[in-house]
């Protein structure tokens, strides 16, 4: 299983690109990669955008593929499209898409979502107390449809809303909340 970590945004409300955020547990970018790996992703591709070169330095020494979304300012849809296009040569039946701004995501969530579907028709996503979130498992059969509908900050939301998605409850493992603003001092 290939992991796709979206980390291209500018992070206006955060005051800096989320790919550059570090907290008491380390760099979010590195933690995102490690969480995907420990959860079952044999390979990880990271999509960068805002301040890509600075963010790339955080990944030094990690075995990851890095792609840059030139149109990152358009929103998550641009990052997702860039990531999917970079994986056209992949032999994996699916990918697991996650976001850099989920600092409490744990490998057990990744493993649980991966276990929910196999093959190119798989379509699953984590939910937290019934609320859909990330990561999202996209079987290869869905990539073209996601590429067509991923726009703005919606990512694959419109595509997923029209398909039968396996919902995987993970609220017992993490909050699933993306962090958009700095923690109070």
Structure description:
Helices cover 28% and strands 24% of the residues. It is of the alpha/beta class and 185 residues long. The protein has a single domain (2-169), classed as Spore Coat Polysaccharide Biosynthesis Protein SpsA, Chain A. The strands form two sheets. A seven-stranded mixed β-sheet has the order 5-4-1-6-8-7-9, with helices on both faces. A two-stranded antiparallel ribbon has the order 2-3. β4 (43-48), α2 (52-58) and β5 form a beta-alpha-beta unit. α1 (28-39) packs across α4 (107-115) and α3 packs antiparallel against α5. 45% of the residues are buried.
Structural Rg? 15 Å
Q: How many structurally independent domains?
A: 1
**Share of β-strand residues:** 15-25%
Task: Please state the structural category.
Answer: alpha/beta
Cα shape: globular
- Helical content stands at 25-40%
CATH fold topology: Spore Coat Polysaccharide Biosynthesis Protein SpsA, Chain A
Largest sheet: 7 strands, mixed
How many separate helices? 6
Which regions have little confidence, pLDDT < 50, spanning 5+ residues? none
CA(first)-CA(last) distance: 39 Å
What's a concise summary of this model?
This protein has helices at about 30-40, 50-60, 75-85, 105-115, 145-150, 155-160; strands at about 1-5, 20-25, 25, 45-50, 65-70, 95-100, 125-130, 130-140, 165-170. It has about 180 residues and is an alpha/beta fold.
